[in-house]
Structures are given as C-alpha cells and as structure tokens.
Amino acid sequence: MFTHSVPDSRSSATDRTDERESSTAVRLEGVTHRYGATGGRFRSSADRTVTALRDVSLEVSTGTIVGLEGPSGSGKSTVLHAVSGLLVPSDGSVELLGTDLAGLSDAERTRLRRRHIGIVFQRFHLLPSLSARANVALPLVQSGLPRRDRRKRATALLEAVGLGDRTTHLPGELSGGERQRVAIARALSTDPDVIVADEPTGELDTATGADVLELLTDVGRDRAVLVASHDQATLEVADRVVTLCDGRVDDVR
C-alpha cells in the first residue's frame, strides 16, 4: 500500500534502523489491572472493582505484529492502554524499549508516548475542522519542528499511504478507508517504534479493510505492532495471536 518510503523524522536514520532490528520493544510481566482500584489496592471493601487483566505476560519484538483476540470485555483494550502508558496497571510491569513505565511520572509517560508510540483508533479520532495534512502534522507540534517541516512531513506521509491528492480535504470529505489511512499516517508522524491499533478495520467494509491491513503489514516491517481485533482477516496478518479470556492469556498461536 505504501507508494513511497516513509521519511524518518529524526536525524540518525541508520542508527535508528539498527536499534530496531531484532529487539524486544514491548514486554508485559504479570500484569494485573483492577478498575476501581487505587495504586493496586481496593479503596474499601464496599468499592465495586472490575479485574480487567489477570497476570498477563507477553512480548512484542521489532518487526513483529502481535494480534490480540477475545470477546468484548476480555481485556484487549486494557492491554493497549497499558502498553501506551495511558494507565498504570495495579500489579506487574510494562516495559517500553527497556523502560519500566511505572517508574515514570505522568509527564514522562506522555513524553515517551509522543516520541515512541503511534496509536490507531477504530473510529479514527480525526479533528473534523482540520485538513488531512493538519491532522497528520498535529503530533509534531510538540516536537519543535518548524511549521514548514511539519507540513512537508505530513504531505510525504499522506503520499506514502496513497492520499497525496487528499491533503487539503477535511475528514468529512473522505471515505472511511481514507480516514483510517489518514489516522495511520498520523500515527507514523513521529516515526514511532511501536504501533498499537484498536479494531483498525472495525468500521470498514471488507475491501477497504484489506487495504488497511496491507498498510499495517508494511508498517510492521521495522516496528512492533500490537493490534486488537475481533476480525479474523485482521488477525491473519499477525505473526502471533494472543487470545484473552476474562483478562487472562488463554492461548498463544
């Protein structure tokens, strides 16, 4: 699906490629998470808590796509949120590129996420008042890149995902598949080491979903990709599939 190579947003592209080769990008060890708990403890016996994850351990290496499957409520999205640093699990550890996320402040986790993680949402989460190019460039605002360079990179990414003629279109003027490709280009804007995708084809028809899956496969060649989905076609592009049931790892294949 890529029509051009994706430009590296950092100065040492060769060093960065070497760092990515055959490395463990994400590691979860014994992760348990209880919603309604504070710091891994019940606030009181009267509190109602939900244990979303129970002793989950998994690794995702660079150049590997790992699929998460399981029924609604099995913990797939919670795994993605833990990997992204959007939540700190009640117990266990989450390491991103060798850094334990629990040891970081909220601000430090945010900086790490902006630099190293690209997130693809099921419902795109594009800002409706911004053009496709402005949506893709948005994560780069905090990077310190001049506006001209942000626009140049966003344009190159949209060309890479086959949307070079849609740079000035608003999300409402794009099809579902085009919006998802904009969302993937946005996720790539900071040249992240890890991509997490939550039901990336859930809103798409079969043909458009196939295009998006081809794009994710291309993305995964030099990144770690963790994708949660109910869709078997999506899971078939994964190198490994982890089945979750009631918050536990039920199977790995």
From TrEMBL:
SUPFAM superfamilies: P-loop containing nucleoside triphosphate hydrolases
Entry's Gene Ontology cellular component terms: plasma membrane
Annotated InterPro entries: AAA+_ATPase, ABC_transporter-like_ATP-bd, ABC_transporter-like_CS, ABC_transpr_LolD-like, MacB-like_ATP-bd, P-loop_NTPase
PROSITE patterns: ABC_TRANSPORTER_1, ABC_TRANSPORTER_2
Domain of life: Archaea
Basic and acidic residues biased stretches: 13-22
Name assigned to this protein: ABC transporter ATP-binding protein
Organism of provenance: Natrinema longum
Species lineage: Archaea, Methanobacteriati, Methanobacteriota, Stenosarchaea group, Halobacteria
